Amino acid sequence: MKKQPIPDNMLTPPMLIGHISRAQRCTLRARENDPIMTQNSCRAILFCLSREEGVTQLELSHRAGLKPPTVSVALRRLEDEGYIVRESDDDDKRASRVFLSEKGHALEKENKERFERVDNEMMRGFSEDEIALLHSMLLRIRDNLENPKGGED
Questions:
Q1: Which of 40, 70, 77, 90 has minimal Cβ neighbours within 10 Å of its Cβ?
Q2: 7 pLDDT exceeds 80?
């Protein structure tokens, strides 16, 4: 039996956010050229490294919002596939610093272009003012979740 979608008038804004998030991930996955990018953890790590390389595994865990064991497994896979390289930390020989390889930089460039295309599709028909307002409201929702006031006003 086919599952019936929830009617639009019954969807709360948080439910819509969840639906949109899933639809975006599915759209991005369907357009992936490399199977490693179907894993959200690998995608998050490459995204973080594209913004700052040479971080430790623990720093990467914090920046990507992933648990250290998840980062460890993903880094091993990314390294095996040739997307990252690890180098010993000059100050702490027990730690290693993570960098994108040439192959990793190329993949991240493709990913950035793919994200931009999907983002543009998602925001088609919105004015700059509407986009700014939506951005502001979504940041407030995120902040409300990250900093709950426990019902205090």
A1: 90
A2: yes
